[in-house]
Amino acid sequence: MKPNAVIFYAVFVGAALSGSATAFEWQIGDTRASLYGYAKLDVIHDVGANLGNTVKRADIRLDGEKGPEGHSILHGYQSRLGVSSQTVTEQGDVKVVLEGDFFGNGGGSFRLRHAYGEWNGITAGQTWTNFGGFLGMSPTIDFTPQPGQGNASRQAQLRYTQGGFSVALEDPNNLGGKMTVATSDSATQPLPDLTLRYQGRLGELSYGTSAVLRQLEYYQTANDEEQNAFGWGLNLEAAYLLTQGLVLRGSLTHGDGIGGYLEGSPAAPAYIDPRTGELESIKASGGTAGLSLTVGPGNMTLGYGVARADLDDAVNFGALTGGANKQFEAWHLNYIWSPITNVSYGLETSYHRRQVQDGREGDAVRLQGMVMYKF
Question: What's the number of domains the chain is made of?
Answer without folding.
Answer: 1
